Amino acid sequence: MEEIQSQSDNYRSSSSSASSPASRVPSSNFFYLRKPGSLRQPISFEDSPEWEDTDIDVRVEEGGDSIHIATPASPSLSKLNSGSLPSPPLPESAIFARKIAGASIVWKDLTVTIKGKRKYSDKVVKSSNGYTLPGTMTVIMGPAKSGKSTLLRALAGRLHNSAKMYGEVFVNGTKRHLSYGSYGFVERETTLIGSLTVREFLYYSALLQLPGFFCQKKSVVEDSIHAMSLGDYANKLIGGHCYMKGLPSGERRRVSIARELVMRPHILFIDEPLYHLDSVSALLMMVTLKKLASTGCTLIFTIYQSSTEVFGLFDRICLLSNGNTLFFGETLACLQHFSNAGFPCPIMQSPSDHFLRAINTDFDRIIAMCKNWQDDHGDFSSVNMDTAVAIRTLEATYKSSVDAAAVESMIIKLTDKEGPLLKSKGKASSATRIAVLTWRSLLIMSREWKYFWLRLVLCMLFTLCVGTVFSGLGHSLSSVVTRVAAIFVFVSFTSLLSIAGVPAHLKEIKIYACEESNQHSGALVFLLGQLLASIPFLFLISVSSSLIFYFLIGLRDEFSLLMYFVLNFFTCLLVNEGLTLVVASIWQDAFWSILTLVLMMLSAGYFRLRSALPGPGLLENEYIGTSFAVGQVRSISGYQALRSAYDISPNSNSKWGNLLVLFLMAVGYRILVFVLLRFRVRKNVSACRFFQCNQNTNDAR
Fold first, then answer.
1. What's the rounded Cα separation, in Å, for the pair 119 and 189?
2. Which of 36, 179, 192, 261 is most buried (most C-beta within 10 Å)?
3. Which letter does DSSP use for residue 316 in this model?
4. Under 8 Å between Cβ of 35 and 48
5. How high is the pLDDT of residue 136?
6. Is the pLDDT of residue 440 over 60?
7. Which CATH architecture has domain 105-182+265-374+385-416?
8. Dihedral, CA atoms, 463, 466, 469, 474, nearest 10 degrees?
9. What is the pLDDT of residue 299?
10. pLDDT higher for 357 or 226?
11. Where in the cell is it found (predicted)?
């Protein structure tokens, strides 16, 4: 205790610019804003506008459909605009037309262990207690690797298979899992489809998620657009096109949140909503989320750092460090908590910066490096405390504080009575999802020039080159070997051009992984949709390239033979497409996928015995049934002309057997892709497993 007291005294002396806790912390909500006409005065809590202080009143009506809650009055937009820093203007339509029945979440003694996650302990979250209420924003804050995202995933039931959770989680006062559609989860990094507009992207997301007719989902999409203030960007491409720029990072982040809002969830979990956003975009994002919370939705998200203006919009804060809960309660009470522990926030410093400075152990290394430096005012660092001591002090102060007792009493109050059950809103049928994914993929492929249009142009240019080199061969016996070489060059190198589709396939796999984690799609649905959408483009490539090659080379002039040539080449493209998907699913990296495919296709067949190679169906199609004159009297069949070089069958129907082998190869590759998507692509734990984990923990107790 003497060490803690001495460190606290050092910190008090280093923060001499901070006013005393009594004068700094008013009884009302705080917000760092200057009064008009006081621009040259230092910012302090005394300059904050006066807002009423209300107590939380939660009551659950039996038989009702929502929890009625009177939340503390947060700064309204009109009051924020009264200061010198106005908040971003929002359109009137930014508010939902319908109110959302939120839900309360309570977690009690929640502990999460992940083997190998920590150097000294497997516990990522340690005995955390807290709650979140409808119509409020609860933020989980802390330095890197403090357990923020793990706690958020534990509450949403999305922990990884290797994680084990202990403790209790209550939803509306009962231990139950979160059903599909009752909540939304936004990852830190989400994959958006750049070739779609914002409205199209949200509309297809609604079709994948919601049951019912198509026309009923347009109003849901418009509500989501207005809720996230995306009206000005609704008809703009997300990723841009040609010389047109795509959406800025702030709007992209809001689009990813709007995708989850089409389900009108009761609870919305967001992992780092301010990730890669500048200060203006971050403030606009939080004001938009504050508007969303005012409709009744329960918001809980993680955040690493925020500006003073953003910090003033939070309702509650859960402060973590190394998995330990250092504080849970109102944002204003957190400042009082730090003051009581001996670490008051300086006047000119952001509260979140101050909190992280006190509990982030990385600052100890900075002080160790710079302890002998001198700045303009003397010593380099005005903050000379040990963060380990600060963490222990804050944790001990919180456990014995009134705030911790208030949290325990609120947990008892929220779990005393059972609230309404969050029912599942149903899912779109598998047939509907396949149709939607097929149509969406068709639209994407038609707009993405790198997907199939580039391959079409390359195939036609290559075919023209090969056709002009081997044109005018004639039908003599001496032209057989040259004609066979032309066919092999055409098929081999046009198949090699399938590598151009690797980046597009990797993007498709990322989109699938993002949608599958939120149960918007599935492996079988994705594969069928992608296959059906790619067939028209592959058929277009096969027809255009085959016609150019067939007539430039001068192959047999029969329609049935031409159709077999086109069908055989189309099946080869299907096989290559499946092989490309397999390699992309294994590596999930463009460089290694392209390198592997190049080595596989260039060496395919060159290290096999001639007798072990499959029958060349295109050669049988060209030469079975033909004859060549040898001298003036004798003639030989096309089978005899090729028999010495290639093992082909004299039966004219054997070429269909070879075509069947190609078709089975295409199907086999698709099945392998299905297995890889199911077991290799990273997945989150289902909500049922989350419920079973809670039940097993309770039974053990």
1. 26
2. 261
3. E
4. no
5. 93
6. yes
7. 3-Layer(aba) Sandwich (3.40)
8. -90
9. 95
10. 226
11. Membrane
